[in-house]
Amino acid sequence: MSDELNPVASRLSPVKPSASAWVSAAAKKLKAQGHDVIDMGLGEPDFDTPAHIVEAAYAAAKAGQTRYPPTDGTAELKNAIVAKFRRENQLDYTASEIIVSNGAKQVIFNALMASLEPGHEVLLCAPYFGQYQDMVLILGGVPVAVPCSADDKFLVSADALDAAITERTRWVILNAPSNPAGAMYSSQQLKAIGQVLERHPHVMLMSDEIYEHIVFDDQVFVSFVRACPNLRDRTLIVNGVSKAYAMTGWRIGYGAGNQALINAMVKVQSQISSGACSVAQAAAAAALNGPQDNVEEFRQAFERRRNLVVKLLETVDGLTLDPPVGAFYAFVACDYFIGSATPDGNVIRDDVDFTQFLLEDALVAAVPGSAYGLSPFFRLSTATDDDTLRLAIERIAASISKLKIK
Ligand SMILES: Cc1ncc(COP(=O)(O)O)c(C=O)c1O
């Protein structure tokens, strides 16, 4: 037996280093060596948090809101969230049905920690936000991917969902508009999914609505609970201020749902963090209660960039993009290049090889579709300025023109 200490618990062993972590580490390494890498991997708005929100945080700190906040969130923020649900989603939640956490990520983790038994299955609609899978694995659950193809606009159909549900299914996670595909369900499609869930009363639904304000082409976002009010008590809505208000660093997310589940999530949170930063909560309350002009301004900027990326990619042979209807990513199909050879004679076997080639040859960092459970694709974040987007796509086009198709 080796004397060497292994400090890591076996519960972490199913979690493999993610492809997106690999991409960002490799991009950083190349940058440190002096290469001019364009990082299209990051999933955050490139705008600053609006000034009135920053001022509210400053005022709260000066007014002495510097002690432990209530574990489940400050009354001010929870009331702002109650008002937000009424105003924007026509939903009625009481403050006690709401939890505030360190980002939407912690809301999701708290919920899974509070509800999963080992072996419970969690249905993920691929392509999905990679962290769902990792969190389920850490907690001893079984992530089950339901593939959603480009032909289906990357949306899960009611029939596919029905076929994937077993007696061990605990959760279905929906995310719309989605990361990475920017796909969004209509109210009709949500109702059809709701009808499936009504037939399976042991299944809960997590609706990750964090991109609700980043929606294009005059489409209207509908919350899952608004479409399926009968399932209100079996649904956890996950949302937060990171994306809509350019507040990723403030780490404020919230969940709304079943009282017993929320109570259990608060119990989990009381052991982990004692709640979210008091000053950041004051900032989030100002974001939700204050003027919403910046939200629309950011949305318009993301729509312009989406239009630009769609137009630029149309001119690149071999790459296909189904125009996203929301969020700030482009999930691009690269199947045409699988099996092709690089100028060095290496074969592009999959989307990981493809993004590695883009990084090394085009000096553009993109995340392979395998990180989101669907290949062969790659994800570009479009949360960057027009010139950078143009340059990145020019470089990608120049590099892939060197690939020899077999
Ligand atoms: C689909 C989705 N859900 C949740 C999150 C996490 O958001 P937060 O910053 O509030 O933790 C992200 C962030 O990338 C996301 O893309």
How does this structure look, described?
- There is one protein chain.
- This protein is α/β, with parallel strands linked by helices and 406 residues long.
- The chain folds into two domains: 15-43 and 294-400, Aspartate Aminotransferase, domain 1; 51-289, Type I PLP-dependent aspartate aminotransferase-like (Major domain) (Aspartate Aminotransferase, domain 2, 3-Layer(aba) Sandwich), CATH 3.40.640.10.
- 40% of the residues lie in helices and 14% in strands.
- The strands form three sheets. It has a seven-stranded mixed beta sheet with strand order 2-8-7-6-5-3-4, with helices on both faces.
- A hairpin with a 7-residue loop joins strand 9 (320-321) and strand 10.
- The longest helix is centred in the C-terminal third of the chain and has 22 residues, at 293-314.
- Residues 43, 103-105, 129, 175, 179, 208, 210, 240, 242, 248, 253 line the site of pyridoxal-5'-phosphate (PLP).
Please provide a brief summary of the model:
Helices cover 40% and strands 14% of the residues. The chain has 406 residues and is of the alpha/beta class. Pyridoxal-5'-phosphate binds next to helix 4.
The topology string of helices and strands comes to HEHHEHEHEHEHEHEEHHHEEHEEEH
Which structural class matches the secondary elements? alpha/beta
> What's the end-to-end separation, in Å?
50 Å
Mean pLDDT: 96
Measured by DSSP, the beta-strand proportion falls in 5-15%
Tags for this entry?
alpha/beta, binds pyridoxal-5'-phosphate, Aspartate Aminotransferase, domain 1, 13 helices, 2 domains, Aspartate Aminotransferase, domain 2, 13 strands, 406 residues, 7-stranded mixed beta sheet, 4-stranded antiparallel beta sheet
